[in-house]
Specification:
It contains six helices and no strands. The chain is mainly α. α1 runs antiparallel to α3, α3 runs antiparallel to α4 and α5 runs antiparallel to α6. The protein is elongated, with a radius of gyration of 15 Å. 27% of the residues are buried. Pfam families: DoxX_2 (PF13564). It is found in: Membrane. Keywords: Membrane, Transmembrane, Transmembrane helix. This is Membrane protein.
Length: 128
């Protein structure tokens, strides 16, 4: 059974809100995703948290949902290299759950349905 577009958009907005808040509240686990060449990991993590919250707001409002869905898809694609870095840097037995191989490598294929979800929200918003 297909979900109504507002349910897909609302659940995406809620997910983005939760992850955005998590990036701002507990930035340290995400800092390992940032390559040293980019400078301050904390600034990038805070920036991505703010971007997630902005995408959540855009997806939540019907008038901006299409742009919000596209921006969210782009954000998910944009953070993928950081997830690859985290997977390559993962090691068994580390204290951080995010740096364990199962978690780090398991995140990679999850980006595909996340991008598809955001894309679907954008597509459904333009059909209204």
């Amino acid at each position: 059974m297909a979900r109504p577009p507002h349910v897909l958009a609302g659940s995406l907005a809620a997910t983005l809100t939760a992850t955005g808040i998590l990036h701002l509240w507990r930035p340290r686990p995400f800092e390992a995703l940032i390559p040293p060449a980019l400078g301050s990991p904390r600034a990038w993590v805070y920036g991505s948290g703010v971007a997630e919250l902005a995408c959540a707001a855009a997806v939540a409002v019907p008038a901006t949902r299409r742009v919000g869905g596209l921006a969210t898809a782009a954000l998910f694609v944009g953070v993928f290299p950081g997830n690859v870095k985290m997977a390559l840097d993962s090691r068994p037995g580390v204290r951080s759950w995010a740096r364990r191989p199962l978690v780090a490598w398991g995140r990679l294929p999850l980006q595909v349905p996340l991008v598809a979800w955001a894309w679907r929200v954008a597509r459904d918003a333009s059909v209204r």
